[in-house]
Amino acid sequence: MNGTIDLNELKKIELDLMTEVHEICEREGFGYSLGGGTLLGAVRHKGFIPWDDDIDIMMPRPDYDAFIEYCATHETPFAVRSFENDKTYVDLSAKVYNPNTVLKDDAIDGGDKTGVAIDVFVIDGLGDTEKAARKAFKKTEFKRELLVAANWKRFFRSKTRPWYYEPIRFAFYALSRGVNKSKLFDKIQSVYKKIDFDKSKYAAAVGGAYREREILPQSVFTEYIELPFEGKSFKAIAAYDTYLSSIYGDYMKLPPEEKRTSHHTFTAYYKNAEAEETDGQ
């Protein structure tokens, strides 16, 4: 297919999306921070991790809800896909995407309905003590793993999990074939929407890839600084050392060569190129 988006162009589109989100959040007062590997990239590389190709941000639940509502009621230079505006979308992070692009993915469902995107993870309150937070986090653990597998088109080897976890992943894949994804998502989300974020002393991105390592004091996620990223400046949690140390350990140390790979399974295209090819068939 013509119009394939290469790695450099992919990063440029994502950076433009990030700039647009940042401008809205600054103007409207929505709190956000770079998250996961994107925050690590900002701290360690002042930009993308060289072998990575995505941008993740995180928002406390009140800011996330306000941001989604704003995007639903105002014209924005990007499109948003989340469970709040599309009940067939059952990912625990929302996607802010370029509507002139499309993804082709033979492993993960839904890419053809979005495009090149940045992921917006929700930081939910989990309770007043670390013990209560871990209990609340575990309450939906099985359902979350099942939901992740329900979005797979086929079974595939994980790029992040050790080989001995593959039988468990396959079991979740088999179980997930008969689930109602929207109901499952609703059950997960309803647990955390009942917990008042502002009154919680602990919080986490429940849909994050790092699971219990993301459970931290709520204050970690609500105080911000700005960090350089690819020549621009974006918001980051002031306590980034606490967060990155919890997730990655010695985060300034580079991983071994064999671990320096992208986790994506998609190929990105410009929509107009896809239409041109279809017309020519």
Summarize the structure in words:
With 281 residues, the chain is α+β, with helices and mostly antiparallel strands. The chain is 38% helix and 19% strand. Strands 1, 2, 3, 4, 6, 7 and 8 form a 7-stranded mixed β-sheet that branches. The radius of gyration is 18 Å and the shape is globular. The C terminus is likely disordered.
Q: Count the helices. How many?
A: 9
Mean pLDDT: 90
Q: Note the overall shape.
A: globular
Number of strands: 11
Strand coverage percent? 15-25%
Describe the sheet with the most strands: 7 strands, mixed
Poorly predicted parts: 274-281
Written as H for each helix and E for each strand, in order along the chain, the element string is HEHEHEEEEHHHHEEEEHEH
What class do helices, strands and sheet pairing give?
alpha+beta
Ends distance: 12 Å
Binned, the helix content reads 25-40%
Radius of gyration based on Cα positions: 18 Å
SSE topology:
Blueprint: H1 7-28, E1 33-34, H2 36-45, E2 56-60, H3 61-73, E3 79-81, E4 93-97, E5 101-105, E6 117-127, H4 130-138, H5 141-150, H6 166-176, H7 181-193, E7 202-205, E8 216-217, E9 224-229, E10 232-237, H8 240-248, E11 266-270, H9 271-279
Parallel strand pairs: 2-6
Antiparallel strand pairs: 1-2, 3-4, 4-6, 5-11, 6-7, 7-8, 9-10
In short:
By secondary structure, this protein is an alpha+beta fold.
Question: What characteristics describe this protein?
Answer:
11 strands, 281 residues, alpha+beta, 9 helices
